[in-house]
């Protein structure tokens, strides 16, 4: 499946007012006060006053700065609260009737990818939906790893999960850990950091080796090469998120698809279809 070491996330400022929080995000993004001011149609002096607490930003200014700093939706609510305003973005449970259409749409989408594997995960890589292509790859996985909440990172990297079947585990593991680390830096999430530390500590089998396909394949991206019933299947991961989300839950959902990386994988997966 398909995120600099985990310490790359900016430390939380001692003062949790909106000024220090905005400064921490600006420094995390490596943006100067002048550059941020130009982006937000403001002045470096005003940005400085906001960060030092000499000026209280309007609700509109908080949201504008958060937008130009690419602050995740959940953390935008935290900025608003720190500035004395009400949160702007709701966090609707995924099983809420208000999201019925969303859930149905995601289910139709991942089913439409069959026989290719596809799944829906949240910001912690917990699996909320998966199609039959994913279930095919999970044949023989111990029950304790399949107990909800199912976690894609644990399933992939655990020594009793998919890890022993992945022929290029060291390369794929490095890709996944880097992906998680980028997410930690983006979201400054302690739960995600703990998950990173857990899966990074899983042992890597010494006998892990790269697959040797019968015919050389010019891969355009790093594939996951996984054994399944005596065959080596190759997949390229693609991740999609929702554009302009207005809800924290929706903002943190991602749809991952595993696309066949070679003709033999296509042929085999299609043979599984009724």
UniProtKB/TrEMBL annotation:
GO molecular function, one term: DNA binding
Domain HTH cro/C1-type residue range list: 22-76
Top-rank lineage group of the source organism: Bacteria
InterPro entries associated with the record: Cro/C1-type_HTH (IPR001387), Lambda_DNA-bd_dom_sf (IPR010982), MLTR_LBD (IPR041413)
Signal peptide: none
Pfam family, one: MLTR_LBD
PANTHER family, A to Z: BLL4672 PROTEIN-RELATED (PTHR35010), BLL5781 PROTEIN (PTHR35010:SF4)
Name of the protein this chain belongs to: XRE family transcriptional regulator
């Amino acid at each position: 499946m398909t995120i600099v070491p985990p310490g790359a996330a900016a430390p939380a400022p001692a003062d949790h007012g909106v000024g220090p929080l905005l400064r921490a995000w600006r420094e995390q993004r490596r943006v100067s006060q002048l550059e941020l001011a130009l982006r937000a149609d403001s002045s470096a002096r005003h940005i400085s006053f906001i960060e030092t607490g000499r000026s209280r930003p309007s609700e509109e200014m908080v949201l504008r700065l958060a937008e130009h700093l690419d602050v995740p939706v959940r953390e935008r609510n935290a900025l608003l609260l720190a500035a004395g305003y009400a949160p702007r973005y709701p966090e609707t449970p995924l099983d809420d009737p208000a999201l019925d259409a969303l859930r149905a749409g995601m289910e139709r989408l991942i089913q439409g990818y069959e026989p290719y594997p596809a799944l829906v995960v949240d910001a912690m890589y917990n699996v909320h939906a998966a199609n039959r292509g994913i279930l095919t790859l999970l044949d023989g996985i111990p029950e304790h790893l399949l107990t909800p909440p199912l976690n894609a990172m644990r399933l992939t990297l655990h020594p009793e999960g998919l890890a022993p079947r992945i022929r290029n585990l060291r390369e794929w593991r490095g890709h996944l850990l880097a992906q998680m680390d980028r997410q930690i830096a983006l979201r400054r999430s302690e739960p995600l950091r703990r998950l990173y530390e857990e899966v990074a500590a899983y042992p890597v089998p010494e006998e892990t080796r790269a697959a040797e396909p019968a015919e050389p394949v010019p891969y355009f991206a790093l594939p996951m090469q996984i054994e399944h019933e005596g065959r080596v299947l190759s997949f390229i991961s693609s991740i999609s998120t929702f554009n302009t989300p207005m809800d924290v839950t929706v903002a943190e959902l991602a749809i991952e698809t595993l696309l066949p990386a070679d003709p033999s994988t296509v042929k085999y997966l299609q043979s599984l279809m009724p």
